[in-house]
Amino acid sequence: MQHRFWIPAGVTMAALFAMTAWAESGTYEVPRTPDGVPDYNGIWQAMGSAHWDLEDHNARQGAAPILGALGAIPAGRSVVAGGAIPYQDWALAQREENRANWVKLDPAVKCYMPGIPRATYMPFPFQFVQSKDAILAAYEFTSSSRVIHLNRPGSEAELDSWMGYSLGSFDGDTLVVDVTAQMPDTWFDSSGNFHSDELHVVERYTRTGPDTLHYEATINDPKVFTEPWTISMPLYRRIEPGARILEFKCVEFAEYATYGDYYTDPPEDKPNEE
Which are the contacts of 179, defined by CB distance < 8 A and separation ≥ 6? Predict the structure, then answer.
């Protein structure tokens, strides 16, 4: 099994410093598509530990090989504005129960589609393919995808789905994506942070350099939280030669994580297969 590291493949430390310099210089001119809107085409990836825990956290034991764990969850700083997620009292207790049993309960460990915003900052790349009317977002993890509709303002989803219903627009050079109609089963990370069926996410993608984006997502769910809250982090373009979205056989890894060596020691509660 190939392990995942925090710095995207093909991005050296020198390149990271160069990316930061572009953002700080204020001289970067956002590229445009033939239609005159900001160009977000490319393969992007987050670095950091947000997919393990959005809030400040110490290093701790890990046991989910499908998420690229190296035997432990790395320490990380909060990406939540203000530091902490504003849970209602009952929901905070539920989060703690989720966290204590995350290996069994985390939907990503079971290879379910991760939902938004989690799909953006998992340790797997995703690709934007942009046209005049829509942006296709293709994610390596579980081969998930979604369409960000640029030509359907005010429309609504007919049914809820794992990756939700995304309506996109441009606020200057920023891509704004309004995401609704998500299944309530997804989590925000592997630390039990969760939501209800009333989740509403507004994403903001802003190009800050040739190979960098600033990502921000505001989460609103009045069933679970006392007020809306926001996360933010950088995203980096995959710049190695031949970069592309590759296959990730999540189900195979999930079965191993859940059942161990199934063929030699199947659990008693797993039905035998002919």
Answer: 116, 164, 165, 166, 200, 201, 202, 203
